[in-house]
Amino acid sequence: MLYGANLVQNVDWKNVIATDETTFRLSTVRRMHWQLPGHRTVRRTVKFPLKINVWGCMTSKGFGKITCFKENLKSHFLCTQIYQNCLLPTAKQFFGRKKDWLLLKDNDPKHRSQISKDWKSNHGINELPWASFSPDMNPMENLWALLK
């Protein structure tokens, strides 16, 4: 945690694009109910609920592009579709021609794959070093929690 605290202090957050992806399932509405002691309530569930995957990004200046997709997110799709069509336009929108912005993403394997590393290197994208197992430090995680 100390690594994460030191990292946060030394970052110019005005130059960071925070990104994350999540899945929204339509059958996961949490409902409160009463039940008598000794009785079990039976809840109906859907075996294969409808779901939508969402990728989004934000900066200190505002929200960037959001995209919805049905596919499971793999490195190639992440780079060629999401980064190309959402991340780069958001960077241009908020930072113009400046190249000193940083990408904040979690340590999911698809972000660390060689395909992803090569794509970011070829497009001049610099990453913010991120402590392992610290998703709560990414502001996008808090946004998803509010939306869910």
UniProtKB/TrEMBL annotation:
Q: Which residues form the Tc1-like transposase DDE domain?
A: 16-148
Top-level taxon of the source organism:
Eukaryota
What GO molecular-function term can you cite, just one?
nucleic acid binding
Question: What is the official name of this protein in its record?
Answer: Tc1-like transposase DDE domain-containing protein
